[in-house]
Each structure stands twice: as structure tokens, then as C-alpha cells.
Amino acid sequence: MTSQNGTWQKYVEWVEGLPDNVLLCRKNGHRFAEESDAKRSHWKKRRDRVIEIEVPCLRKCGAHKTSFTDVDGYLARAGKVWMEYEDPDYLIPKEARDGKGYTKEKRAVVRMEFIIRNQALIVEET
Ligand SMILES: [Zn+2]
Fold this sequence. Notes:
27% of the residues lie in helices and 21% in strands. By secondary structure, it is an alpha+beta fold. The chain has one domain (7-121). Helix 1 (7-17) runs parallel beside helix 3 (104-117) and helix 2 crosses helix 3 (104-117).
């Protein structure tokens, strides 16, 4: 897997440097807190009576999810996943982007890195 301008190598280096929690979110998706979790959720009733409910990722990767429900229970708009920081570890750095998105090859790198870091957990070989 190579690319003309070295974005692939930059991508691999980025994955290798990811904190464990962010690597897990990249591999499995975020683990958002329940919206009914009084400690972690943040509820807001807007003037137009839309209820905004925001919850953080339990792995503290910096991601949050907000849902928007109108007064009749319909979604006022699509839920949004957003980052707490401008440039969190979670985002693929610009120099490592090739414009093709999060491809299966990129996901494979994340999975391999996860296995390499946790290979001590292998307790059985067949
Ligand atoms: Zn996360």
C-alpha cells in the first residue's frame, strides 16, 4: 500500500501514535453515554421547544453526540457527532488524508495496530 505523496506512511504513523481509547473508537465506533444518564448527559430545552440532548463518548476520545427532538417527538434535524477540541487525536491529520475517506485498507491498519498492542491477550493458539 503506497501513495504518491506519502500520505499512506503518514496515516500509518498517525495510527501507531493514537492513544488506546481513540484507537478503540476508530475500530469499534464511539461508546456514547446513555441520554438518560443524569451525570453525563446535558439536556437543553430551546425556545422553539426542541430538546437538545448531548452525551460524551465514554472513552473520553473527545467526541460528543447531540440529538434534536421537537415538541411532537420528531427529530428536528439529524443527530450530530462533534468533537470537543478543534484538532483532537481522533481526526486524521491533513497530511495523512488522501481524499478517499476511511477505506477498508485504513480500517485494516487500525485493526492490526489494535491486535499488535494487545497481543498479550492471546491465550490460545490452535
Ligand atoms: Zn469515542
